[in-house]
Please model this.
Amino acid sequence: MKYRVIAPALILLLSSTSLAYAAATAEEAASIKASIQAYVGSEPGVVEVTPDGDDYELTLDVMPYIKKNAKADFTASFDPLKITLSPGDEDGTWDVSSSGPYAFSMSAGDQFNTSGKIENFDWQGTFDEALGAMSESTTTAKGITISSKVSQPGLNLKTAVEYSIGSVESKSTATEAGEGLADSESTIGFADIKFSSKSEVPADAAVNGPSLDYDASIAKGSYVTTMKSANLAGLLDLVAWFVAHPKEELIKQDQAVLKEKILAALPVFASLSSDSNFETLKVNTTLGTFAAELGSTSIALNGVVKDGKFGEGFSFSGISIPAGLAPPWAADLVPTSFKLDFAVSGFDVEAPARLAIGAMDLTKDPVLPAEVESQLQPAFTPTNTVIVTLSPGEIVSPVYTLSYEGALTVNLAGLPTGKATIRLRGADALMAKLAAAGEDPMAKQAVPMLVAAKGFGKAEADGSIVWVVEGTPGGAVTINGLDMSSMLGTPPAAPAQ
Model:
């Protein structure tokens, strides 16, 4: 007889119970239920599994937990989630599916209430026992809406928030990256996002300044997320441990094993990156409409490893602001696009994490001894430095383009060192705009600053002005090789030995 192990990855559950590869039976349904309860607890009614021909119907319902733990002024309603588990064509895989509408609501007296629904969704995927995750998965959803209203205590002020997504489509895959490890990639596309925030102000309230009400929309966009060497086995084992220790005193009594479980779950993942793109962003305010035709964001980080890295990036193009917000002479100086991308590296996440986990004592206050706390920062930055890298970026307007890039070594016990290159195209046109502003105070302040900056810059053949700014190990700050220490009020650099 062939056997299967089921683990519905959508809720990060893992079962160690063998299931017969045959017609579904009540006994095997009970085995599946017991396996899943290891990760969500055994509260009656939360997990139900019933045989249905060759399949199993899994129902997950959070309401028993909510009813058991909710305070008197709190009410909630969550639809149960129904999932079909079907043995696949090959040993070791399961087809997993769920569909239909979904709704929820929560309320805490007059202070807070929220509700949401999905008009229709369809989820299909394949779970791979050996991988311990969904090897592939697709989801479509339409008509997603969330409404919330929050009252601020003592102010008699209510804020109503409405959020909706017209449609969502997602696909994900996962492959083995070692024992208990998985590489994954997911793509999510969305369309017709709308968001609004409105405040209900009492008639007798003294309101100063413009209204903060606004609404925003995005025509469409997408996310692509990649994770390398996710430690699924370690994380799920840790979840199961906490489920088996539901009370604080049980956790404290068994904290030696807890430390082992946490360490086994490291580094959580080797690396994670996510990139998003969107089209036609609009934000309507009482001042007018702010908009961008295209936008993107990115984030990248390593897990709990020695080679610590974190990076983030933003870019927007086709930017526009409300007419009249900038004075006429400055209208063409407002950026129509910009790009910023930076990264921080050269730090160690693993060493301080292991140090803290090994030394923590949950029975004491503070949890970490003072001597260990003092060791965390040196463990995090063993060279006492971190490196900040500014990738090539720019700010663009109809008149000028300002580009920049650089790298800086931040010394936690001394002065930073590094080099940055700044390039300005359109300096003469910018100066002409400022001169045409006449007696405008802002322009009058900017003119001498730009004149001084041009004086320190290096003119290039294409008319650009370049500033190479460098911080030296001796403490000097130079611009295009000229020591600016005396002008900046810092001591001159120490002579080279």
